Amino acid sequence: MPMAKPSKNSFFGGAAILAVAIVAVKLLGALYKIPLGYLLTDAAFADFNNAYYIYGVMLLISTGGLPATVSKLVSEANALDRGNQVQKILKVSIVAFSIIGLVCSAIMVLFPAQLADLMNNSHSRWSIMVLGPAVLFLCPLSAIRGYFQGHAQMVPTAITQVIEAAGKMLFGLSLAYILLKNGADESVCAAGAIAGITISSVVACVFVIFCYRRHRRNAPVATDTPDSTGEILKTLLVIAIPITLSSSVMSVADLIDTSLVQGRLQEAAGYTEAATRTLKGVYDKAVTIYNLPSQFMLALTLSVIPAVSAALSLKDYKQGAQVSETALRTTALLIIPAGAGLFVLGEPIIRLLYPTTDVELAGWCLSALAFGAIFVCLMQISHSILQAYHLMRIPLITTIIGCVLKFFITYTLVAIPDINIKGAAYSTVCCFGLVTLLNLLYIRYKLPESPRYSRVFLKPVGCAVVMGIVVWGIYHMAEMVLPHVGPFGNEAGALSGLGNAAAVGGSILVGVVVYFAAILLTHAISKEDLALMPKGDKIAKVLHIR
Predict the structure, then answer these.
(1) DSSP 8-state assignment for residue 489
(2) Helix, strand, or coil here: 485?
(3) Residue from 532, 87, 90, 11 nearest 306 by CA
(4) Which of the residues 353, 366, 424, 531 could staple to 346 if both were Cys, CB 3.0 to 4.6 A apart?
(5) Whole-prediction pTM value?
(6) Where do the domains of the chain lie?
């Protein structure tokens, strides 16, 4: 049977479905993290995040390369009409990675105190232990997500993401509130909050298994002979290990960096463990907001690998390059203005979302991390492009180089008392900036067809600069007009409460309008780009885009 040419809009069709789900997920995440910031002290928030960093490493060890690997192999097998091969790929991946997940889960459950001591934060042990079982359930969940993504069916992935987000919000906040009201220690309250992740992972796993069973019943009968278990396992590991390593390097780096930050604050800068936990909690609240843009870009990251892989399997290098360039340009169009907004509104956003924390310090960190948010998203999409071209080692190498720089800057700057936790923000921006630069240089000079970076970056940067200036001006005009009244009726030195909320919301709204007008006037997005999207031709016609 002849191989089918991939649909022109399959890439952005899948991305659009995931984008809608991720908007819902992030809204639910905001409803989780923002009240959590009120419920937990800064120190307890640090305990929560310490456990989450360990969980992130264990999760990536067991599932880091799994969805991308399975989606890639399933996409290629589908293009060759090998239905039995597809089913065997899934079965082998579930068994192999669940064994790894069981080991990782056991380490967290059985040795939480030892892991907490490694983080230089002994109070995080309860959160580590409670979060351990989630790793095991996410192994089959990740494999089946990859299976559906390889079929260009993003709905199961989208729904399970919503289930996870809603579950951790409902269960996590409820448990944290109950424990707080019953006078539990702040570290135990943090463990209650993080337990929502474990409960939601179980529910999502059960749901996606149900989706797979229904999909399998409706699948046509296949006649191909699948590869042996050993061959499939070898292929899985050859592809998954570099992806996992490149993904895990960043999570391991975050884990080491967190331990390094807390250790250097205590050993070199002279802070107590209690003061260190508070400083780290303030920084983590800025990081929570800084992470949001990269999570919204997950739809593009998940969709680019199967889309480019399918084109390359048919030797259509021009289509692969076009999808890659469009993905990079779309990323730039979305993330650069978001970064500009975080930079100019860092302190007002912190005052709006976390008014009880150290607003000045957290606001400074958020403004600095705005540049990191841009680099992270560009790094993620460039990683996906390289992986789709079977260049698995390049993201690993560039990430390691960036992490070495990160550790050096963290070790040096955090130990200086006048800089302290701000050093972590400096190191983050430098790390991701270097990794992104190295990735883009490799893509430009080594791939058979490479994106045109002038088309990718120049207009989005120009439009974002204009938008940033307007947003800064609108907010400060509002600051001069609106009353400076604090949340309890006292006169405040800066806008707060409803005044700050109105100024932030109004300036963002104006910024969105200005930016949208700017990209239309400068033709920053082309008809070619929209042609890859569902109903793209109609959108281009309505917006008069040529």
Answers:
(1) S
(2) strand
(3) 11
(4) 366
(5) 0.79
(6) 10-542
